[in-house]
């Protein structure tokens, strides 16, 4: 298995998972009330946006890792498969939050979303640290500063999403707001801090 | 991030968003009335066609830009992600127009479609002008005439879609017709004016 | 636009259109009657199979053409876009046939399927003959026998699907059987006649 | 047809079929009962996981084969198309099992799942042995030990899935558990036994 084939499959899953999110965005109302219903449905668009951006950033991170990786073994393929399984799962809890934003179900929806993203972060950490531990799958000429930079950036993922999940036990709305803030933070961090050319 | 990987992900989102449009085309009727119902559903096919062509032309334009771009920085990745988020959103307002073509909801549906495409045009402009401003991400040997040609062709996008959106406040049907005419215009412009080989 | 990018987008649309066909295959029944309902739903599987094979063969043909084509102009891009729009439309009439196989709606469904594939054949012919006319977009070293072989194989497409569509006016079941036979014929023709290595 | 194009199309179908599985995962409940309903729906997540992993492993195996294959003839294309048709079908019986896990329909659902995967195994065997028989489509420098290793690993596929299918006649739950165990076995076999670099 060359790394390029793994990337082609992963690209497909990332692109499909993100684009499928739109299937769950729908507004059903009689003609005369449609305008009002479209405005009322803002949690659906917000949930779509947050999950699209979250999957998009994970796609960017996946490639940042793959650029340092020169070889693939079967254990790595397995970890990658579990990671993609988590990412393709994201549309489900996204839809739960959108559907139950205005009712009692929001806590359960937010917990499901948080658990999904926490497990995804665990898989993402395993993905990277399995490849990087002792330079197992890295390119020989990989820059140690880039490697340790990626490693440092992966450490906070699990605590951040784990904390947001625990917040849902206290306040579902606060947790949902936090998921949005985390996505926005990652987006702005890329955009503001990272304006150096990377190719 | 190499430009080729960005293109692979973008290709996926464009192809999936366009192909997913068919999911919303459906006709439900008892057997004996099916023929009539299939003919009655022409706004669904028209909406499918207009949005498929619109997404397809945006895909062509995306590649026209990418051919001039030699480097990618993280801010550009962010803009590209927001652009793709808009494009993957198009099936939602497309379905609203198809569902409400014959009732009072058409104005709200047309406004939603227009706002979506206006924001998409803003993102597309940002995408190109961020890369082109001062030659920031362009190839060193990029032809200045090609660059300014692309820039000129991007300027009318926002006013055109913005105007069509405003027309919806006056007449929903006129706005919907205008969306069709705009797609047809871009399609014919490519076809009639642009028969020069580009590869 | 390089031919490889056009192929990447087309590959995506072909693969998605074929794979999306499964969304419309569904059997809803209470537990105790599920076994019976699954057997009763055979037209759904047959329709899935016929359309999957039809789209798959069109994918093979698309690449057979693209291997002879060295350049792409904007008019060709437009024709290609219209062709892909037809192919991505195929799941809709496929589902009509599956849903109405046992009722009065089959004639209307078969006509819709036939018209879709006839128009698709027209687009496919335009796609090839636009590129091949006077060698407009062909590679300079293209083998004239291969070119005229492809041209010959494209001529019967429109009459074959047009005839099957007309048959639906006389007997819907006969037309549906004919769509299956045509797909099987193309599949076996490839398999039995064409065992020469092509790479 | 070059092998790379066949792989691009196959990659698309594998990635889409796996990612589409999430569409059938849904939980509908009033807000106050959502938490309970999400926990109750565990067979949906399990079915999603088992089928995602199964499709993912088939993707890995497909590429393991393709790495040894240097040429493609039209008969091989046809077999590949039938194989992809089976794989894209997997979401249907997966959904049947998830929907009927707690009712009388599980036996019929398990039989459908088993028959689908048995036929898929037959296609996969045909795919490989057609290419490998007498070295028909293999690279000239293919390592005979790798070839016979792949051949050996393909022989048990049909008996394994065939047996699990027959088990469904005796106990539907046992058959479903077996499908999960088979997927887990293939996953762990890759992960534990196969930690050698393969690129």
Chart the SSEs and their pairings:
Four copies of one chain form a homotetramer.
Chain A: H1 3-20, H2 34-40, H3 42-66, H4 74-89, H5 91-99, H6 106-132, H7 144-154, H8 157-170, H9 172-193
Helix pairs in contact in A: 1-3, 1-4, 3-5, 3-9, 4-6, 5-6, 6-7, 6-8, 6-9, 8-9
Structural class of chain A: mainly alpha
Count of separate DSSP helical elements of chain A: 9
What is the percent of helical residues of chain A?
Answer: over 70%
Specify the biggest β-sheet of chain A: none
Mean pLDDT of chain A: 90
Largest interface in this structure: A-B, 46 and 41 residues
SSE order of chain A, one letter for each helix or strand: HHHHHHHHH
CA-CA gap between termini of chain A: 24 Å
Please mark out the parts of chain A with pLDDT under 50 across 5 or more consecutive residues, or reply none: 194-199
Gross morphology of chain A is elongated
> How many strands in all of chain A?
0
The assembly state of the depicted protein chains is homotetramer
Report Rg of chain A.
18 Å
**Binned strand content of chain A:** under 5%
